[in-house]
Amino acid sequence: MSGGARDERPLLMLDSGIGGLTVLREARVLMPERRFLYVVDDAAFPYGNWEEAALRERLVALFGELIAAHDPVACVVACNTASTLALDALRRAYPEMLFVGTVPAIKPAAERTRSGLVSVLATPGTVKRQYTRDLIEQWATKCEVRLVGSVNLAALAETYMRHGLVAEEAVHAEIAPCFVEKDGRRTDIVVLACTHYPFVVNRMRKMAPWPVDWLDPAEAIARRALAILPRIDGEGPVARDPDIAVFTSNRPDAVTRRLMQGFGLVA
Ligand code: DGL
């Protein structure tokens, strides 16, 4: 390890699975000098089906352990299901820590839609959240927003990334309720409000009954992290410790380890 005076504290990113990698890949482009620690809470996957109080409690305790063990410079909650539930509680519990959340991109969708019909595709947890309802209330009262809770899509994305296969009919069934026709208008934007979904967006595009914009907020989240992080001193490339992946199950299988290695993470 070298880097002298440079800030080597990692930027921590957490998701229940591979979804946060969609954010990590954007963050790497914007912050090539940063060291990343990617935390997979696979012992709790999928977050989407958890009861709210129990998941909030788990997240607050888990971040406490991770902050104590890894001293991150900031934490990106790279998961809508966790952010819409626990961001406030995390900020209250760890007031010294910077948290960047991932919440459904309802505001940009409302700004961009021409038909006024927007769908938000998310886990059942995110769809139920008051936080999500408040976003609609605050930014999208002029649109008709359909909330579509998908039970299986995050797991389908996990399988697809590991084995390159996805049941197209299953993807079709999950996305079908997003497509609304009303008074000659059609849904024109689908918000990808789960970080897993961009990995299967090509499949979704293929199965869609008509073309729509699939809104992936990963780059916006990475920009937000860049904006609030303290700058790293010095210029140019620096030798540094590798980025690592940590699993709460403590036992990722060989396929998962290879997948993480493909993203430049030591697992
Ligand atoms: N990637 C997570 C999100 O953004 C959810 C996946 C899960 O259900 O665990 O909501």
Automatic annotation (TrEMBL):
Keywords: Cell shape, Cell wall biogenesis/degradation, Isomerase, Peptidoglycan synthesis. One of its GO terms (molecular function) is glutamate racemase activity. The active site is at residues 79, 194. PANTHER family: GLUTAMATE RACEMASE. Pfam families: Asp_Glu_race. Coiled coil: none annotated. Belongs to the aspartate/glutamate racemases family. This is Glutamate racemase. Provides the (R)-glutamate required for cell wall biosynthesis. Substrate binds at residues 15-16, 47-48, 80-81, 195-196. Pathway: Cell wall biogenesis; peptidoglycan biosynthesis. Its EC number is 5.1.1.3. It catalyses: L-glutamate = D-glutamate. The gene is murI.
